[in-house]
Amino acid sequence: MDAEIEQDDTSRPTPASSAWRTRIREALGALSGPEPWKRGPILTALAVALGLFMMLHAQIPNWLGNVGSLVETILPWFGVFVPLLLAAAVWRRSASAVAALLLPVVVWLGLFAGQLTDKSHAGGDLTLVSHNVGADNPDPAKTARDLIASGANVLALEELTPQAVPTYEKELAKAYPYHSVQGTVGLWSKLPLSDAKAFDIKMDYGPLAATKPFDLKMEDNRALRAVAATPHGPLVVYVAHLASVRWNPRGGFVTAQRDRGVDALGRAVAAEQNQHVVLLGDLNGTTNDRAFNSLTSQLRSTQDAAGDGFGFTWPKAFPMVRIDQILVKGVKPKSSWVLPGTGSDHRPVAAGIAW
């Protein structure tokens, strides 16, 4: 009998568990009833507006300072507002705001959930690497050695200066017996190259030329086209460094020069007779930006198809956007990743492809 009484005593709630149950009941009570649904109308409106803003981003017009392209460039970062609004809603004890946040969460996941998973696969016939090496790179020789270590079969470099080109040619010569430099872009390859020539992307910087980190003239080449001989047949390779974009209080998001380059590349890809095409380079824009439709309608981003995460590349210290791209047509992306930083302000990008 005593044992039974003792067992009954131990089955009673302890003071600690009783306190937790009391807190849970209080929390549920705080969210029950009509009052919490009336709190935080501004937070609720902001949550709904955020969801609609992301959902309808394609409808944001570009006629006013290219704001539509600007929003699409940084679109993934609008998800940061969700935890901020959630914290405010919990502090305010607003059930309506918490419920309204389901809209931006669902929209954001619908847009970007696919980039949160690792889509890479083992294998591949070729490894491609692209890197804006930076005109102010203090150690081009080390950058070249780092890129050799990537194991790339085909290596594209952008923002080459006349002073740095001999260094890259010397350091890369043994690993890459074939190469072509056209203006400020270059292509190094373990595979034979043919028909390498500059490709006109209609650059005309005008007054912006004075803001560039090295002497940039209107006639400087910023893109090239070559054909690599692979065991599976010819592979057309474009290397491009499109014009930088600027934010101007008067003109907004200034992208006209870049967009002309995008259109020139889009027309060239459309005219290609060869089915196997890759585009490597610093495109100064993300593939979310509608301005790239002429390219993304024909070419696949290796990062989107076979990458892990967003693959942000710039700025090197804290990458926030992916403006360095590897786009392909007629070949299968097997993997895509971002390489460790070098002396440049960009991080290199790599991809494995297969036929």
Automatic annotation (TrEMBL):
Keyword list, A-Z: Endonuclease, Hydrolase, Membrane, Nuclease, Transmembrane, Transmembrane helix
One Pfam family recorded for the sequence: Exo_endo_phos
Protein name: Endonuclease/exonuclease/phosphatase family protein
Single GO term (MF): endonuclease activity
Organism (species): Actinomadura barringtoniae
Superkingdom of source: Bacteria
Membrane-spanning ranges: 42-62, 74-91, 98-116
InterPro entries from the UniProt entry: Endo/exonu/phosph_ase_sf, Endo/exonuclease/phosphatase
Ranges for domain Endonuclease/exonuclease/phosphatase: 130-346
Lineage start: Bacteria, Bacillati, Actinomycetota, Actinomycetes, Streptosporangiales
